[in-house]
Amino acid sequence: METHKLHEELLRRTVEVLVVGCGGNGSAIVGGLPFLQQVMLAQGHPHGLHVTVMDGDAISPVNCVRQPFCKGEVSLNKAIVLVNRINLFWGLRWTAIPRALTAQTLRPEYAGYNERYLQPDIVIGCVDTRAARAVIAKSVSGSSLTGYYIDLGNSSSTGQFVLGEPLNARNRRSRMRLRTVAELFEEIVRPELDDDNEPSCSAIEAIERQHPFLNGALAQHALALLARLFRYGQISHHGGFIDIATARSTPLPIDAVVWRRMRKRGMIAPRMKSAAA
Question: From CA 248, how far away is CA 172, in angstroms rounded?
């Protein structure tokens, strides 16, 4: 079985992480990242993480059912609420940007919400549309220096997390470059397949349409993969698929043959939602 080794520069400096989306998966990821930070520092990493969180959405009453928000926070921005909470509790200085990621956000000339030029080492995508995934995939490709792109998505009871190395100025073409979710499941970056007419769900519909603990389970798997990569410097799988209804999980191996088979067969990933409701 093939293995992937961590980009060495990430062991010598602060690791810049950008989380895009603060829905069900995104809020679970953001809540778990301080623990990854603590583990990295305890294991000797010189600086740990600096995290920037992006989301343009305000908290709605329905979000208070399966996401870590309360009624007193309704109408406030999700990213600002989560990051302020984490900074106060953990004594951190992480950043919130109350805007959605656009095709211009990661460009040097971007002038956004008073933040510095974003140069993330790791982008974690927790969005719920193909259009949003297409923007992320494009932003981390080409002249970008982003080292890793992690995508999380789910259906009602299943989900997947995929750690990839986007083809860009940092990651050159190679047989064992970790393929991204957009390369393995090409349909998820086709905006024309989005269902724009899907109605927003009520609290009871939100529970019925998705297992209430799926997002947390999926986020824990993704964070555990990152923790293993930083602890041991290498991994033998770069993602996985979970089914919370049957308590099953399947790793995604680092295997060029498997990648080719997946693309050739046109495998369909789970519905790739990120639990916005």
Answer: 34
Whether pTM > 0.85 for this model: the answer is yes
Element (H, E) at 20: strand 15-20
Farthest CA pair distance, the chain: 51
Q: How many CB atoms lie within 10 A of CB 242?
A: 22
CB 252 within 8 A of CB 164: no
pLDDT along the chain (277 residues), means of 10: 94 97 96 98 97 96 92 97 98 95 81 71 95 94 95 92 97 95 91 63 58 92 98 97 94 95 69 44
pLDDT for 275 equals: 44
Q: Say whether 158 sits in a helix, a strand or coil.
A: strand
Separation of CA 35 from chain center: 16
Distance of CA 51 to the CA centre of its chain: 12
* 3-state secondary structure (DSSP) of residue 90: helix
Domains along the sequence of the chain with CATH: 4-265 (3.40.50.720)
